[in-house]
Amino acid sequence: MSLFLSKVRDIAIQLNIRNIFKSLRVRFFIVVSITGLLSCLVMHALILQSYEDRAVNVKSTEVQTQLRILANHLITYNYLQDTSSEVINAELDMIANLYDGRVMVINDDLKVVKDTYNISQGKTIISEEVVNCLKTGSRGTLSKYDSSNGYIEMITPIVTTELIEEGDIAVAGNSNEVVRGVLLTSVSTETIANTLEILSRRATTLETLIVTIILVFSALVSYALLKPFDRITAAINDVKAGYTDKPVVGPNYLETEQIINAFNALLRRMKVLDDSRQEFVSNVSHELKTPITSIKVLADSLLAQEDVPNEVYREFMTDIGEEIDREDKIINDLLALVKMDKKASGLSITSVDVVNLTEVVLKRMRPIARKHNIDLTLESNRAITAEIDEVKISLVIMNLVENAIKYNKENGTVKVELDADHQYFSIKVIDTGIGIPKDSLDHIYERFYRVDKSRSREIGGTGLGLSIARNAVLMHRGSIDVKSTLGEGTTFVVRIPLICVGSK
């Protein structure tokens, strides 16, 4: 049991850590802190490296100046042949002691004529740098810094100038520089290392202080900058809990404004949907209740009468049957809308001859057109084959044509035009009917909306046909537009992609 509890605790700790690192505030804090820490470390390394390079250069230049002066004195006192000069020996010891180093005087036979350490004196030295200096005759001082062992090694040529003679006569202005020896000098950099250590300790102390300030600053800034998000979250939670339905307001940050605007747009959309749902429920209740009320009244009237004649009985039953048919049509239309609202239902895509499909639908609608003395015609500019849901597109055509017939004038016309381009095909339904008022054009696709409620009920409309048509068009990623002039007629234009990607 204890092992199980321990595992549960470990899992809880891991989940808690994961949640902590998901926090934008924590991530902001970590990013700022790491940025500050890395900046301090880089500055630390750059400053120390810069100081070390500068100190080594300054010391090398200073020692090189002394060595060049000493090299001239060695030639003046002929020290390479006679090392007894107290002045030169004093200078050599002074340089060695001053710079805590070692000086060796080497002649052109690679023999050490003087060593301030008295270790290699009289010996022959084999060094590539020394040999190259003697061969090339360079007057420049070669310098090499060994940071790991803490010294600077310098090779300074001992150069003399000789006149060039022609026969037994020295020609003025003609001279030649000859390397007579080399000064091999090692200078300690302990003072530089000590200074670097002191600077490093001070820099570390300063960095610790700076990093602490950065940590505190990043914590405060992350809290201050992200606090508006907490207020937005709280406001959204209030809306979610139902305490308020007012739009969310917040600080004028660009990011928070985008979030607030998106949420407020969603809130408005949800409010519209909620109002639409309430209105829809109210309309459904009313529409379904009306036929039932009529049936109830007719049935009660029959029951209240005695010895009802067959003619009256048949008349009442005919009325009841019409009300039942009306109820059935409303229910069927509602079921069609519900099926289209379900995204899982998808589309059954097949290759369809749109012209032939339209002709079949119009053939079914012509009896209704003849009944209303309406001339129904089809005009197609070309053959059209599209990847669509045949059933749903037939519903679109049927509902638009049925409305065009029912809301037309006596001896009016309904013309259906088909056309296509390389991407879309279009269905245009043109009637010479009563038209739609301009203020109703934005509402005609709403469920149960009727422009003329009395006429709609008289001709048996449910107010769901255009909603069904629009949903079917949108499922095909198409568009439906309407233009209407009151008293003159209405034109619906439907555009559907020739190739519709849907579920089969």
TrEMBL record:
Q: Matching InterPro entries, A to Z?
A: BphY/WalK/GraS-like, HATPase_C_sf, HATPase_dom, His_kinase_dom, HisK_dim/P_dom, HisK_dim/P_sf, Sig_transdc_His_kin-like_C
Membrane-spanning parts? 28-48, 208-226
Instruction: Tell me the compartments it is located in.
Output: Membrane
- Keywords on record: Kinase, Membrane, Phosphoprotein, Transferase, Transmembrane, Transmembrane helix, Two-component regulatory system
* One GO cellular component term noted in the UniProt record for this chain: plasma membrane
Biological process terms in GO annotation: cellular response to phosphate starvation
Provide the protein name. histidine kinase
Q: What is the species of this protein?
A: Butyrivibrio proteoclasticus
